[in-house]
Amino acid sequence: MAESVKEFEVPDMAAKSANQAEAYQQTTDDIVGEKLTVNMGPSHPATHGVLRLVLELDGEMITKAQPELGYLHRGAEKIAENMHYNQFVPYTDRLDYLAPLANNVAYATAVEKLMGWQLPERGQAIRVIACELARISAHLLGVGCYAMDVGAMTVFLYTFTEREKIYNLCELLTGARFTTSWTRVGGQIRDIDDKTFAAINTFLDGLPPVIDEVDKLLSRNKIFLDRTVDVGTITREDAIGFGLTGPNLRGSGVDHDVRKARPYLGYEQYEFDIPVGENGDSYDRYLVRMEEMRQSIRILKQALKSLPSGPINVVDPKSTLPQKERVLMSMEELIHHFIVATQGIDAPEGEVYFAAENPKGELGFYINSKGGGVPHRLKMRSPSFCNLSILPKLLPNHMVSDVVAILGSLDFVMGECDR
Length: 419
Known about the structure:
EC 7.1.1.-; NAD binding
């Protein structure tokens, strides 16, 4: 059931904004001058990467905005079409590089849908744990950097401290801190052990007080409210029309989450709420992310409490690697390992689309297969790219200083935007 994340009354800034706009219009009606075109980015701390905005200004007011992308384009989709399915896993780390575990899982699950494989229950639960840890990590960074963008430095220190703890958990789980390359088509490279299990539980016990502290620092802060309330308002209709997904869509009051709408990895077994906003402004998008972290904690505790026993990987003698011990002891297993490693999995012909609810929104993979170990075509639906499409509609009639607050509230990452 959808929940509003508005827990208290915030000042009505609409009248104030209207008065400011009217005063601005009165002072500029008699002024005749040229409009100024400026570049914001691609080398700019407030654009969160190599995003370039071409802004047309009338004084301090934006009259036209055009995002220019492609400065980080690496041709990931074409690379995928020239690699075995498993060889592309490390490249998914570099999409939303703030949540590499979630990218790994989304891609591997898409290929498994093509193969017709169903992961064992324990394998699904471990992937859920990985995805929700990635969601918390990405939102911690998003909220921390957003607060710093609008002048609140302390929050950044709180959130990055907790995010560093998640990196420690990633190292225990996968052996790597940042670019994990953890999943394989058909499972994971390793199971979760007791040490990691206990460490995650300890982290989850200590995280809620930190989120509450961040809430106290920001949610009633006069400066933060002035910078975010009624700034960058996206209506429900515009959010749907521009294809926004994730917290940016839910911040505009749309109760849609892929984990609920099209459950995968057993998400239908977990109890959690979908936070939605009321006004669709920058402040609502912040509140949605704050509540999503609390909901991810709920999911993680349920997954850890009911973690089933059994295998974590699909068993398919023709397309999955045999256990290492058997490879070292049997000539037949060694030959089988060699064939799978050099030729890749033997995928059937067909086409599939799979979408996962990533921290930035709906990350989708379309795979067209002609058979064999390499996809014929692979296309990605990157949520950051779609979310940024609303900027030409959103930024006009805002001040230049509002751009920083609006971009931070959208919480995009250029790695998956440009691909």
